[in-house]
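Any chance you could type out some protein's one-letter sequence along with its backbone structure tokens so I can compare the two?
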Amino acid sequence: MTALNVLIVVTAVVVLIALRGLVLARSRGSVLCCLRRVPGKRSWRVGVARYAKDQLNWIPLIGLLPRPRHVIVRRGLVVSGRRRVGSGEFFGFIEGVTALECRNGPDAFEIAMGYRALTGFVAWLESAPPSAYLDVA
């Protein structure tokens, strides 16, 4: 009987995590994107980016907590380069994904997204107030 209870609990947790990911991906103002820290060249992590007034909140797609794991502040954000992501770099990437090399204060990271999401990201950067310091490559 305990094995059946464990199986039910594990199944419920998996369903809740999948449902959380679906709700995050489908919510208004959210775009799917991947993020990775540059210094360690860690692997890409799939998540959802939500635009706020002057920041971009990145929430991992798979996880328990609904709060953002990374907050990217628009003021002082430096985009130093862009490149196409190869299919061998990450299993889940489809064709046409672009990675942006960014720095926000001491944090260096890459953010990868499709063409439409990239257009929205650049528009969000460029729509900063005149007093904001932006450096877009």
Observations:
- The longest strand covers residues 30-37.
- Helices lie at 2-26, 115-126.
- The two ends are 61 Å apart (CA to CA).
